[in-house]
Amino acid sequence: MDVLLLSRIQFAVTAGFHFLYPPISIGLGMVLILIKYMHLKTKDDKWDVLAKFWTKIFALTFAVGVVTGIVMEFEFGTNWSQYSRVVGDIFGSPLAMEALFAFFLESVFLGVLLFGWNRVSPKMHFISSICVTLGATLSAFFIIVANSFMQTPSGYKLITEMKDGVEVLVRAEITDFWAMVFSPSTIERYIHVIGCAWITGAFFALGIAAYYIIKNKNTDFAKMTFKVALPFAAFAVFFQLFTGHLSAIGVSKNQPIKLAAFEGHYNTGPGDMYLFGYVDEENQDVVGIGVPGLLSFLVDFNPNSTIKGLNDFPKEEHPPIQLTFQSYHLMVIFGMGMIGLIIIAYFFKFKKKLFEQKWLMISFVICIFVPHLSNLAGWISAEVGRQPWAVQGILLTKDAISKVVTAEQVWFSLIMFTLVYIVLLALFVFLLVKKIKSGPEAELKPATVE
Question: What is the pLDDT of residue 448?
């Protein structure tokens, strides 16, 4: 494999491992806020004990997320130095703001949250949980700002120079800071990512609580977790339908070739939407089950509206169609599956038989992993669907690679980082399982002593 493909695989591996943790932090932070609010409202110390349990899991997730995120920033200077040279002045701004504002807000108040029991008032402790979650949420905003510039660049100018009679791109500079921050896709992509994180955190909490129900252990705390996490999960999954719709509209306006790749739509005209299928690229057709005109309806509320097809774009600008199509549909399938599970859970909740359904509790345990699969599939479809561009319309991916890095060097770092990330993931799972086995009841003795 050449340096370009190896570097893309390496970045995908490091980003994929890292992205396992921030969505849990953001979503679990919201669950923690709800638990702390219930403690303030009811004055029941069981809610405080439950908050201690989830705070420690939040801290573990935060710590591993920070460690796994560091490597990616170095990759911009090693594997992707040409990318850094051209757009580093722009890309570096939101990353710097993420460190200065979001990371420090989150880390400072996490200290208060971890060590502030009986040292600050319950209200201050509650405010600290809000600040920690706000920091995590702001962190995602600045990352999405940087990524959205790659998708829909705005607020910039290109600096070029003549070299051997040829105009060469030197770098991109910011001309309008706020236009760069709020590029055409920033807000719609940000709220979609936050919705994903809320779902991830909510299902993470529900899955662990369901495990306790199955084992008939810590059942009071498990049911308390369900009391706050289930309605939050219900809100999140339906909120995600709304944000997904907004995102699709945005893609249709700003990246029509990506939208066409999502559905294997080759010829301009009304767009169909497939439940699942396979793209026959040779015959420019999709073999699968689809709903005629549904893509057009979702974009324009008109099943006969025109969707621009892949054939209207140069062949060399087509993204990998099959991978984009399949990853996009996996994201949708997983998302709809979680909506279905929430509806079923509420059906049994209204019948007051929710916790009697062992198969349903097992489903929630399994669904700890489903949001992660959906998130990764969504990111694959978004990033692969942008190819062949590193920055849409400005810099091709093949021109963003470092010129001096060899395939052997990338192979070495790819293997090394993959092994390190596997070890970190194994350590995270080990510590998480250990904490889950101890359960919220392990916090009762220290709480009594204090």
Answer: 41
